[in-house]
Amino acid sequence: MAIKKGNFILIDYVAKVKETSDVFDTTMEEVAKKERLYKEGEIYESKLLVVGEGWMLKALEDDLPNFKLKKTASVEIPPEKAFGPRDPEKVRLVPLRRLTTRGITPQQGKRIELDGKFATVRTIGSGRVQLDFNPPLAGKTLVYDITVQKKLETKVEKITVLIHRRIPAVEVEKFNMKITKKSIVINVPEEAFYLEGLQLAKRGIANDVQKFFPETTTIKFVETFKKQETRKEKPLKGKR
Fold it and tell me: In CATH, what number does 88-132 get?
């Protein structure tokens, strides 16, 4: 199974910091629970990767041609190919009052947003807060244990995972499709009608499909509202 640019693949991974072996990301629920990363409502499943699209670190994608289906392999990524080195100049002291007047309550280790930039709270004391504006993984060597679970081959498979990528909360099997060479009709299930951000998700699906299948000129989403049948109550029979 050769993996090359443009391939649609499903992968599982466990990502950790080499220096500490701390796991910071994974696609697998059992690992997330074991490492205390589990988030309620998060969907843990194999992740779609279109090789060469920059959906993951380039150093990871560059190593994918060496991978074999269902075989777990490790990729080590130095800081310069991951999130860059730590910059001491991005660690600053700011007055505590500057944060509290903006409704920010700093807690050590917490990520906050200040003036449109994200920072990690390092220390709090004497009316001042030390903020680190470096990315949390800056200066770290990362190790990804990756398993390529599947390589998608058919147009139907690929469009199906593109839909699921944008609307993961609804079972993808419930989206019925009619695909021709130049058009696609996607029947949206009722469960998705009132999802927050549905219109943006549909626009994203349309953009994805037309990007990867440029011969497609028309994408139609159909939302069918069916009349709810009301049950008529039978009149109570009088007692004898």
Answer: 2.40.10.330
For the question of whether the overall pTM of this predicted structure is more than 0.90, the answer is no
Q: What is the fold, at CATH topology level, of the domain defined by 154-226?
A: Alpha-Beta Plaits (3.30.70)
Identity at 110, one-letter amino acid code: K
Q: DSSP characters for 152-167? A: E-SHHHHHHHHHHHH-
Which residue positions in the chain have pLDDT lower than 50? Answer: 240
- CATH 3.10.50.40 assigned to 1-84+139-152: yes
Residue ranges of domains in the chain: 1-84+139-152, 88-132, 154-226
Q: What is the pLDDT of residues 28-80, one digit of tens each?
A: 999 999 999 999 989 999 999 999 999 999 999 999 988 999 999 999 999 99
According to DSSP, the β-strands at 183-188 and 218-223 are parallel
> DSSP for 56-102?
S-HHHHHHGGG--TT--EEEEE-GGGTT----GGGEEEEEHHHHHTT
Identify the CA nearest to 159 among candidates 107, 215, 198: 215
Alpha-carbon distances of 219 from 23, 35, 188, 214, rounded to whole Å: 40, 42, 12, 12
